[in-house]
Fold this sequence. Notes:
Elements: H1 2-18, E1 25-28, E2 31-36, E3 39-42, E4 52-58, E5 69-75, E6 79-86, E7 93-99, E8 104-112, E9 115-124
Antiparallel strand pairs: 1-2, 2-3, 3-4, 4-7, 5-6, 5-8, 8-9
Amino acid sequence: MAFVLLFVFLHFSGEERAKWHTSPDYVSDGNLYLGDEKGSIEYNSFVMEEENFETNLILPEKAVGADKVRLLFTHDGRGKKAPIALPHSREKEQPVTLWFPDSGKWRMDIEINGSVHSSVVLPVKEK
Length: 127
Protein backbone atom coordinates (compact mmCIF):
# COMPACT_ATOMS: atom_id res chain seq x y z
CA MET A 1 0.00 0.00 0.00
CA ALA A 2 2.83 2.41 0.87
CA PHE A 3 4.37 1.73 -2.56
CA VAL A 4 1.11 2.64 -4.31
CA LEU A 5 0.81 5.89 -2.34
CA LEU A 6 4.44 6.77 -3.10
CA PHE A 7 3.87 6.08 -6.81
CA VAL A 8 0.72 8.25 -6.89
CA PHE A 9 2.50 11.09 -5.06
CA LEU A 10 5.55 10.99 -7.36
CA HIS A 11 3.37 10.77 -10.46
CA PHE A 12 1.22 13.79 -9.62
CA SER A 13 4.03 15.93 -8.18
CA GLY A 14 6.05 15.40 -11.35
CA GLU A 15 3.05 16.00 -13.61
CA GLU A 16 2.94 19.73 -12.86
CA ARG A 17 6.69 20.16 -13.53
CA ALA A 18 6.43 18.23 -16.80
CA LYS A 19 4.27 21.00 -18.25
CA TRP A 20 6.94 23.68 -17.78
CA HIS A 21 8.36 24.03 -21.27
CA THR A 22 8.58 27.42 -22.96
CA SER A 23 5.54 27.79 -25.20
CA PRO A 24 6.01 27.41 -28.96
CA ASP A 25 6.59 30.59 -30.94
CA TYR A 26 5.15 31.84 -34.21
CA VAL A 27 5.33 35.02 -36.31
CA SER A 28 2.24 37.07 -37.19
CA ASP A 29 2.37 40.43 -38.98
CA GLY A 30 6.13 40.59 -38.36
CA ASN A 31 5.77 40.09 -34.59
CA LEU A 32 7.01 37.11 -32.59
CA TYR A 33 4.46 35.47 -30.26
CA LEU A 34 4.65 32.69 -27.68
CA GLY A 35 1.59 30.46 -27.40
CA ASP A 36 -1.08 29.35 -29.85
CA GLU A 37 -4.58 30.21 -31.11
CA LYS A 38 -6.00 29.63 -27.60
CA GLY A 39 -3.90 32.49 -26.24
CA SER A 40 -0.51 34.05 -26.86
CA ILE A 41 1.75 36.91 -25.85
CA GLU A 42 3.83 39.16 -28.11
CA TYR A 43 7.47 38.46 -27.35
CA ASN A 44 9.69 40.62 -29.58
CA SER A 45 12.24 41.40 -26.88
CA PHE A 46 13.70 39.70 -23.83
CA VAL A 47 11.54 39.96 -20.76
CA MET A 48 13.71 41.06 -17.83
CA GLU A 49 13.05 40.65 -14.13
CA GLU A 50 12.03 43.78 -12.22
CA GLU A 51 11.27 45.79 -15.39
CA ASN A 52 7.94 46.74 -16.93
CA PHE A 53 7.21 44.74 -20.08
CA GLU A 54 4.71 46.39 -22.40
CA THR A 55 3.24 43.92 -24.85
CA ASN A 56 0.07 42.63 -26.47
CA LEU A 57 -1.96 39.54 -25.72
CA ILE A 58 -3.95 37.54 -28.23
CA LEU A 59 -6.89 36.22 -26.23
CA PRO A 60 -9.04 33.16 -27.01
CA GLU A 61 -12.29 33.88 -28.91
CA LYS A 62 -14.23 33.03 -25.77
CA ALA A 63 -12.62 36.02 -23.97
CA VAL A 64 -14.10 38.56 -26.39
CA GLY A 65 -17.10 40.06 -24.62
CA ALA A 66 -16.66 37.85 -21.51
CA ASP A 67 -17.67 39.32 -18.16
CA LYS A 68 -14.42 38.45 -16.37
CA VAL A 69 -10.98 37.84 -17.90
CA ARG A 70 -7.93 37.54 -15.66
CA LEU A 71 -4.28 36.64 -16.07
CA LEU A 72 -2.90 34.32 -13.37
CA PHE A 73 0.87 34.01 -12.97
CA THR A 74 2.95 31.22 -11.43
CA HIS A 75 6.76 31.24 -11.19
CA ASP A 76 8.48 27.90 -11.89
CA GLY A 77 5.53 26.03 -10.38
CA ARG A 78 6.17 27.55 -6.93
CA GLY A 79 5.38 31.20 -6.36
CA LYS A 80 2.17 32.88 -7.40
CA LYS A 81 1.72 36.52 -8.30
CA ALA A 82 -1.45 38.57 -7.85
CA PRO A 83 -3.86 38.12 -10.78
CA ILE A 84 -4.36 40.91 -13.30
CA ALA A 85 -7.94 41.66 -14.33
CA LEU A 86 -8.33 42.73 -17.95
CA PRO A 87 -10.91 45.32 -18.97
CA HIS A 88 -14.04 44.17 -20.80
CA SER A 89 -12.97 43.85 -24.43
CA ARG A 90 -14.54 43.31 -27.80
CA GLU A 91 -11.14 42.62 -29.39
CA LYS A 92 -8.89 39.55 -29.26
CA GLU A 93 -5.75 41.70 -29.11
CA GLN A 94 -5.27 43.38 -25.74
CA PRO A 95 -2.39 45.67 -24.66
CA VAL A 96 -0.95 44.91 -21.23
CA THR A 97 2.00 45.94 -19.05
CA LEU A 98 3.55 43.14 -17.00
CA TRP A 99 6.18 43.10 -14.26
CA PHE A 100 8.05 39.98 -13.14
CA PRO A 101 9.84 40.09 -9.76
CA ASP A 102 12.07 37.07 -10.50
CA SER A 103 13.86 35.52 -13.46
CA GLY A 104 13.08 31.99 -14.64
CA LYS A 105 10.04 30.46 -16.29
CA TRP A 106 6.63 31.97 -15.67
CA ARG A 107 3.30 30.45 -16.60
CA MET A 108 0.52 32.85 -17.51
CA ASP A 109 -2.94 31.28 -17.31
CA ILE A 110 -5.79 33.03 -19.11
CA GLU A 111 -8.89 32.68 -16.95
CA ILE A 112 -12.30 33.42 -18.47
CA ASN A 113 -15.33 33.65 -16.18
CA GLY A 114 -13.58 31.56 -13.50
CA SER A 115 -12.13 28.79 -15.73
CA VAL A 116 -8.60 28.58 -17.12
CA HIS A 117 -8.77 28.30 -20.91
CA SER A 118 -5.11 28.45 -21.92
CA SER A 119 -1.59 28.85 -20.60
CA VAL A 120 1.59 30.38 -21.96
CA VAL A 121 5.02 29.67 -20.46
CA LEU A 122 7.61 32.39 -21.06
CA PRO A 123 11.22 32.80 -19.92
CA VAL A 124 12.19 35.88 -17.91
CA LYS A 125 15.89 36.80 -17.99
CA GLU A 126 17.99 38.13 -15.11
CA LYS A 127 18.73 41.85 -15.08
